[in-house]
Amino acid sequence: MKYIVFLWIGLLFACHTLQAQFNERPILNLENEDEQLLNWGYFLGFNQYDFKFDYKENTGDILVQKSFGFNVGLIGELRLNRFLDLRFEPGLFYNQRNLGFPGFTDKTEAIRNVKSTYINFPLLLKVSTLRLGNWKPFLIGGASTSINLGSNMDSLDDNSSGTFRMNKTTYYYEMGFGIDFYLEYFKFSPSIRGVFALNDELIRDADPDSPWTGNVNSMKTRGIFVNFTFE
Fold this sequence. Notes:
The chain is mainly beta. It has a single domain (2-230), classed as Porin. It is 10% helix and 52% strand. The protein has helices at residues 2-21, 107-110; strands at residues 38-55, 63-65, 68-79, 84-88, 91-100, 111-128, 135-148, 169-182, 187-197, 216-230. Strands 1, 2, 3, 4, 5, 6, 7, 8, 9 and 10 form a 10-stranded antiparallel β-sheet that branches.
């Protein structure tokens, strides 16, 4: 419920901003905002992570129950020209996924809770249009790496003891879009972004025929980020 309220407040604010900024002859806010070589800011938002599984044999899918998590981080932006900006957005991302494994009758054996706390380090290229009054659409994309503080990578236990393990470091590519709104005192930018892992994140159990990991050829994160940026 709290994520729905947060999204609703953000949408109301964005709609109010849109109404104010789409006048035919708006008063230009922050006219020199994009002329600075370096810009700084922060972001707040929410995320939803998923897993994409590739199997060795078709013996049943692992079910992923997704949930909403939250994002918070900082922004450093280097102006390249009037259309291109290089951005570094280190942030903290928290999320939980519940996995349901096929072939079990005991719920404690079939379900694994995957709690993840990521420290994310993306390097992104922002491609903007010309400024249109007090707003400006943009596309954004690039590469990132994250450290999962809840990976259990160094644990000696595995799924036979109830411990689901993942690699601590993951590499992604990211792509998305958003709009910059130039308000009286700051720039507000809602955006949505898809993230896709490049490497296999699963650490296999000691038993090569493990009912949890034995049939998994690869497990890769994918997700959606919705961020509200203030600069």
